[in-house]
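In the previous chapter we treated chains in isolation. Here, by contrast, the input contains two separate entities that must be folded as one system, with a combined length of 1372 residues.
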Amino acid sequence: MIDLPLQIVIAICILALALAAILARNLLAQDQGTPKMREVSDAIRVGAEAFVKRQYSTIAILAVVLALVIFVVYFLTGQSDLALATAAAYIVGATCSAVAGIVAMYVAVRANIRTAAAAQTSDGKALDMSFHGGAVSGLIIASMSLLGVSITYIALGADPLHTPFVIVGFGFGASFVALFAQLGGGIYTKAADVGADLVGKVEAGIPEDDVRNPAVVADLVGDNVGDCAGRGADLFESTAAENIGAMILGVALFPVFGVNGILFPIVMCAFGLLASMIGILCVRGRDGADPMDAMNMGYYITAAISAVFLFFGVQWLLGASAGWMYFFFAGLIGIILSVCFLRVTLYYTDHHYRPVQEIADASETGAATNIISGFSVALETTAIPAILIGISLLLSYWCGTQTGIANGGLYGTAVATIGMLMVCAYVLAMDTFGPIADNAGGIVEMSQAPDAVRHRMDKLDAAGNTTKALTKGYAIGSASLAVFLLFNAYMADIAKLTGKAFEVVNLAKVDVFVGGLLGAMLVFLFASFAIRAVSKTAQSVIEAVRVQFKDNAIMAGDRKPDYAAVIDITTSGALRNMVLPGILVVGFPVIIGMTMKYEALAGFLMVGTIAGILLALILNNGGGAWDNAKKYIEAGAHGGKKSEAHKAAVIGDTLGDPFKDTAGPSLHVLIKLLATLTLVLAPLFI
Amino acid sequence: MIDLPLQIVIAICILALALAAILARNLLAQDQGTPKMREVSDAIRVGAEAFVKRQYSTIAILAVVLALVIFVVYFLTGQSDLALATAAAYIVGATCSAVAGIVAMYVAVRANIRTAAAAQTSDGKALDMSFHGGAVSGLIIASMSLLGVSITYIALGADPLHTPFVIVGFGFGASFVALFAQLGGGIYTKAADVGADLVGKVEAGIPEDDVRNPAVVADLVGDNVGDCAGRGADLFESTAAENIGAMILGVALFPVFGVNGILFPIVMCAFGLLASMIGILCVRGRDGADPMDAMNMGYYITAAISAVFLFFGVQWLLGASAGWMYFFFAGLIGIILSVCFLRVTLYYTDHHYRPVQEIADASETGAATNIISGFSVALETTAIPAILIGISLLLSYWCGTQTGIANGGLYGTAVATIGMLMVCAYVLAMDTFGPIADNAGGIVEMSQAPDAVRHRMDKLDAAGNTTKALTKGYAIGSASLAVFLLFNAYMADIAKLTGKAFEVVNLAKVDVFVGGLLGAMLVFLFASFAIRAVSKTAQSVIEAVRVQFKDNAIMAGDRKPDYAAVIDITTSGALRNMVLPGILVVGFPVIIGMTMKYEALAGFLMVGTIAGILLALILNNGGGAWDNAKKYIEAGAHGGKKSEAHKAAVIGDTLGDPFKDTAGPSLHVLIKLLATLTLVLAPLFI
C-alpha cells in the first residue's frame, strides 16, 4: 500500500501533466504565421532536433559506461545487494533528465512560430503563446522530477530507513545528463551566437539575425538547445537532488516524524507545483502592457500560495514536533530568499540601475574600459547574494534548532531549500519563455515582417532577456542551498557505510585544506575549458561562414545561404568540445576521493562549491550586465547604435556571452553534480 | 646575553646592508646621461617622491588609529600586560615596512637615469646598473625584515614561550602598511598607464611614452610607486609574517628543540640572504647577451647555495630530532617549489608557449575573441600552481611526520615555507630590476635618444617584463605556503587565549561554512573595488589630459605639457580610492569574527585564502599573458603593429593592466593581512 503523502504527490503530478497537455494542445492549434515564418521556424526545428538527437546519443554512451562503473564499484566494495538498485536508479534518473530536456526543446521549437504569428496582431497574445510554451516545459519537467523520485522510491521498496540512500543514483543520473545537456547546449548556443556576430555584424557589417548570414539559424537553434534544454535539465536535477538529500536527512529524524519526515520534501514540492499551476494560469497577456508586469504578478501569486501550502504541509507532516512553526519559518526564509535573489539579479543586470549604467558610461572610452568596468561589476555581484545565502542558512538552521528536535537545525536548512524550490515550476515557465520569445523575434526578423510586428516582438524579447537573467539568479540561489543539504547527506552516507560518526570536516588538516584548494581550482579550470570550447567552436563557425561569403553571391542576393552546413559544424564542434570538461569534472573528484579519502573529498566538495557559487554569480551577472549595457546604448544612450560606445559595448557583450550562457549555467550543474557524484560513489572513498 | 643564532642573524643583516651601501655608492657615482634625460628623470623622481610622501601620510593616520584600536582591544579583553607591547610591535612593523617601501622607491628613481645613461654605450652595463639598483632594494628590504623581527623579539624580552605571540603585532603592522602601499601604488600605476594609453595611443594617435602626452610622466612614476614600493612592502611582510608564524609553531616544539626551533626560521632566512648576496654578485651584464640568462644563472646559484645552507642549518638547529634529514627534505621542497613556480609562470606568460600564442591568434578576429581566449587562459593558470602547492604541502607535512616528532608534520610545512623564502632577497632584486629598466626605457624614449640606445633598452625592458611576471608568481606561491603556517599560528594563539585545544575548523558546521562563503566573497569584492578604483582614477587622468590637449598647442609643439598637473590628479585619485577597499578588508573580518566567533572566522580565513590564491593567479597570469600577446604581435606576428590584431591585443592588454598590477598583487598582501589581522585581534573573537 502506498503512503497517503505519496498518493497526493502522484495525483498532483498527474494534474500538472494534464494541465501541460491542455496548454500544449491549445498552443499547437494556433496559427503558424506566414510561409516565410514557417520556413525559418522549420529550419530551427530541424536543426535543434538534429543537435539534440546527436547530443543525447553521445550522452547515452557516456551514461551507460558510468552505469557500469557504478555497478562495479558497488559490487567490488562488498555492496552487491545495492549494485543493481543504484545503477538502475541512475539509469532512470538519467533517462528522466534526458526526456525533460528533450520535451523542453520540443515544445520551444513549436511555440516560437506560434508566438511570431501571434505577434502579427497582438503583443498580449504573443506573450500568452510564449509563456504557455514555457509553462508546458516547466510543468512537465517539475512533475517528471517528482514522479521520477517517487516512483523510484516505491520501486526500490519504499523502506524509509534504507531507500533514500539508494535513490541517490537517480539524482546522480539526473546531474550527469544535466551537465552534458547544459554544457553541450551552452557551447552550441554561444559558439553560434559569437560566430554569427563576429562574421556578420563585425566582418560583413550586416545586422543581427540578418537572413543573409549563414550562421543565423544556428544562432536561433542555440537558444533552444542551450537555454531550454539546458536550464530544464539543470532545474530538473536541482529538485531531484534536493528532494533526495532532504529525504536522507529525514532518515535521522525518523524517530520523531516517522515516514512523514522523509516524504515531506516531495510533498512540499508537489504543493509548490500546484501553486505554480495557479500562478501560471494567472498570467494573461494584455496589449500595450509591460510583459514583465504580468509575469511578476504570476510569480508573486505563486510565492504567496506556496507560503500558505507550506504552512499546512508543515503542520500536517511535521506537526509531531512541538515547535513545528519554526520549520514553517525556515521554509518561509527559502521563499523570501527566492524573491530576494530575483531582485538582486535585476539590480545588477537591468539598465535602470547603477551597475549597467556604469558599464554603459565606461563604453564611451572604448572596449577596454567597458570590460574593466563590467568585470568590476561582475566581481561585485558576489557580495549581496553571498550575504543573503549566509543569512538564510544561519537563520533557517537557527529556526530548526528552535523546534526542540535533536539535529533539527540541519532539517531547518532543508526546509528552507524546499521552500525555495516550491516555486520551481513557475520559474521554469518564465525561463523557457525567454528563448521562445528570442526565437520568435529571430523568426520575425528573418521573415522580414512589418515594423509593427518587429516592434511588438522587441518588447517581448527584452522581457525574455530579463527573465533569463533572473531565473539564472534563482537557479544559483537554490543550488547554493541544495548543496549544503547534499554535503550533509554525503556525510550521513559515509557514516552509514563506515558504521561510525562522520561529523567533522577539519579544514585545518593539511589534506582537507589541499582538498579544498583543488576543489576550488577545479571550478576555475572547468570554466576555462567551457569558455575555450566556445571560442574553438566559434572559430569553426566563422571559418564556415567565410567560405560561404567568399564569392559575394549571398550578399548580392544571388544565392541562399546554406544554414544546414553551419548547423552541422556547430553541432559537431559543440559535441566534441563538451567531452573533455565533462570527463574532467567527473574524473578529477574520483581521483581525489580515492587517493585522499572521504574527509579530504568533503573539503574538496565544500570549498569547490563555494568557489562554484561565486564564480557562477560573476559569470551570469557579469554577462547579463554587459548584454543590457549594450541594449541600453542601442536604445539611444551614449550615442545609440553605430556610435563608438556601441562598438565597445558589443565587444563587452560578446565576452559576456560564454560567461552567462555556457560557463555560468554549467557551473550550477557542476556543483550539484559534485555533490551527487560523491554521494553515489561514496563506497570508493572510505 | 643574546643567543648565538640571533647574533648570526644580525651579523648577516649588517653584512647585507653593507653590501647594499657599496652597491648604492657605486651606482650613485655613475654617469647621469644627457641633460634631456636628467630632465625626464627629475620629473619622475619628484613625482614619485611627492606621491609616496602623501601616500605614507595617509597610511600613517590609518595606522595610528589602528594602533589605538589594538591597544584598546588588548586592554579591554583583560590582557593589559600585552596591550602596550603588541601595539608597539605593530608600530615598529608598520614603520619598518614603510621604510622598506620608501627605500625601494628611492633607489629605483635614481637607478633609472643611470641605466638610461649606461645604455648609451653598453647593454651589459645597463643591465648592471638596473640589476644593482634592484639588488640594493632587495638586500635592504630583506635585512630590514629580519632585523625588525629579531630586534623586536629581543626588545620584548626574548622569552621563547611567550614573545613569539607578542611579535605578531610586528607582522600585522607590516601587512597593514603593505596593503595600502600595494593598493595605492597599484591604483596609481595602472590609472596613469591606462589613462595615458587611452588618451594618447587611442584618442590622439601618438606612440607610447611620447613626450607630448601629459600623462606619460605619471605613467613612469607609477612603475616606481606601484611595482617597486608595492612589491617591496609585499615581500617584506611575507618574510616577516612567515618568520613570526614559524616561530609560533616552534613554541609547540620547545620541548624538543629548545629556543633553536623558535629561532630556526630567522636564521634560515638570514642564510638565504647570504646566498642571495652571492647570487647577486654573480650577475654580470655582457653586451649582446640575453639579460635573462645572467639573471637566471644568478637565481640558480642562489637556490643551490640556499639548499646547502639549509642542510647545515637544519643539522645545527634541528639536529636534536633523530629524523632531522626529513626537515631538510621539507625545506628542499620549498626551494624546488620556487623554481617550479617561476617555470609555470614563464609558460603561461611567455610568447614562446601555447597560451600567449593562443591569445595572439585569437586577436585576429578582434578584441572580443582576444579577451575570451585570454580569460580562458587566465582561469586555466590556476591548475598547475594549485596542484604544486597541494603536493608541496602534503609532501612537506609527510616529511615532518617522518622526523618522529609529535606535531612534526606542521613544522615540516613551516620548513618548506622557509625554504621557499630563502631566495627572497634575490627575487626582490630581479623584481625591482623590472620597473627600473622600464623607467630607463621611458627616459630614453622621452629624451629622444638615438635608435641604437632605444634598441638596447628595448631588450632590457622585455627582460623586465618577464621578471615582473615571474616574481609575482613567486610572491603568490610563497604567500600560499606562508598562510597555511599562519592559520596554525592563529589556532595556537586562540588555544593559548582560551586555555583549551583548538584543532578543528569544521566546515560541515553551518556557521563555519557561511564564514567560508563570506571569506571567498570578500576576496572577489576586494578585487572588484581595486579594479573599479583604477577605472575611476583613469577617468580623471583622461579628463585632465583632454583639457590640456584641447587647444592643440601641445600637439603642435607650441607648449610643453604640464606633467605635474596630471601627476597631482593621479596621486589624489589613487589615495582617495585606496581607502574604501582597505577599510573593507580590515573591517569585514573583524565584524565576522566578533559576531560569529573564532571557528567561523577560521573558516572565513581559510576559504578566503584559497579564493585569494586562485584569483591572484588568474589576475596576475592573465594580465601577463595579455601583455605579452600584445608584445608578440608588436614584434611582427599576425601583421605586427598597426594591424587589426594589434588593436585587439591592445584592448586585452589594457584590461590586463589592473588585473596584474593592481588587484592581483594586492590580493597577495590581502591574504597575508587576513592572517596577521586575525592573529593580532584574536582576543576579540573568543
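The first helix of chain B runs from residue 4 to 28. The CA atoms of residues 279 and 302 of chain B lie 5 Å apart. Compare these points with the single-chain example from earlier in the chapter.
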